[in-house]
Amino acid sequence: MWETAPNLNVARTAFGSAVMNGKIYVVGGLIFNPSTITKTVEEFTPTSLPTEPNPTPEPEPTGDRAILTITLTTGLEKEFDLSMKEVNDFISWYEGKQAGSGSASYAINKHDNNKGPFSSRKDYMLFDRILTFEVSECSNKTEISANHNWSAEIFR
After folding, report:
1. Which of 76, 84, 93, 148 is the most exposed, fewest CB within 10 Å of its CB?
2. Can you give the pTM of this predicted structure?
3. CB-based burial of residue 51 (10 Å sphere; 0-12 exposed, 13-18 middle, 19+ buried)?
4. Contact assessment for residue 77 and residue 37, using Cβ atoms and an 8 Å cutoff
5. Whole-angstrom Cα distance, residue 56 to residue 27?
């Protein structure tokens, strides 16, 4: 019989999964807040399903957000989880540069995607290297998974 299991510790898409020795493993994937590839592996033991619902309250909405996908002339796609203000600032820069004014590059803050000892990380987009961009707006609540019976390990 199928049952709903607790959420993963890290919400993701495009992941791998396997069942071994009665445990479910979820491997890697793409995290959208901020957009990044994860090497996290989570393990779940189905026999440890809680019998009571989780009393953890739902998170409050954090405001409108969007995934900005920029396709470069090389074919590389870059995805960024940004506030709508940041997306609108990017579009204003792009349209201004297209009209002949503004700087040749635009810095996109990678926010919480600071790996290592860095105080901040930014991707600099060059106007003449941008082929297309797409904005996928989200106005739902940020999906934050509750910590149930999953364990996580990072492979390096």
Report:
1. 76
2. 0.50
3. exposed
4. no
5. 25
